[in-house]
Structures are given as structure tokens and as C-alpha cells.
Specification:
This protein is mainly alpha-helical. It is built from five helices and no strands. The longest helix has 31 residues.
């Protein structure tokens, strides 16, 4: 019974990491491409798409850290090399770079 629970936990953590990577790609590409289209022009404060995506990436940084930390701690065995286990943090590093770039862009405005 315990082995089934750990397999389920690992599967859920992997699915959460995959969902986080999908969100990173979905919001990161318009941010990097600097998409200046306004998705909802009738909003109270209309924002360009790159600005909205940067905000979502900034908000999603903490859940991405939590998902990657759980993947690092629980999914791979401790016998694996640390460099292999540390690859769980690659999406977090990419997202952190995009958020830092977003802050740099905002300071320039």
C-alpha cells in the first residue's frame, strides 16, 4: 500500500511540474517576443500581452519553486547524482531570468 502511495505522489509531482513548464512556455513566448497586442481593449486597465504575461510569470514564480523543490526532493532517488536531480530547477532558473528581465523592462519605463 505504501509503495502505491509513493508512486501516486511522484506521478502528481511530475504532472504539476509538466503543467508548470507548459505555463512557462505559454506565457514566456509572448513575453520574449514582446507581443504588443492588447488582448482585452475594453478592460478597465488594458495591458499589452507581454506585460500581462510578465505579471503572470512573476506571480507563478513561487509555485514553480515549490513544484521543482518537491521534484528534487521526492521524485528521484538520493543515489542519483546531484547534477541529474538539479535539472528539476532548470524551469525555475528560466522563469527567474524572465522575471528579472521583466523588472528591468519596468524600470526602464
Amino acid at each position: 500500500m505504501n509503495e502505491n502511495n509513493t508512486m501516486l505522489e511522484k506521478a502528481v509531482i511530475i504532472l504539476v511540474n509538466i503543467a508548470g513548464i507548459a505555463c512557462l512556455v505559454y506565457f514566456g513566448v509572448p513575453f520574449i517576443m514582446h507581443d504588443t497586442s492588447v488582448s482585452n481593449p475594453y478592460a478597465m486597465i488594458p495591458a499589452e500581452r507581454w506585460d500581462g504575461c510578465g505579471t503572470v510569470l512573476m506571480i507563478g514564480l513561487v509555485p514553480m519553486f515549490a513544484a521543482n523543490m518537491l521534484g528534487f526532493k521526492l521524485v528521484l532517488e538520493k543515489t542519483k547524482p546531484i547534477c541529474i536531480r538539479a535539472m528539476f530547477f532548470l524551469p525555475l532558473i528560466i522563469e527567474l531570468g524572465l522575471v528579472v528581465y521583466y523588472f528591468i523592462l519596468l524600470r526602464g519605463m
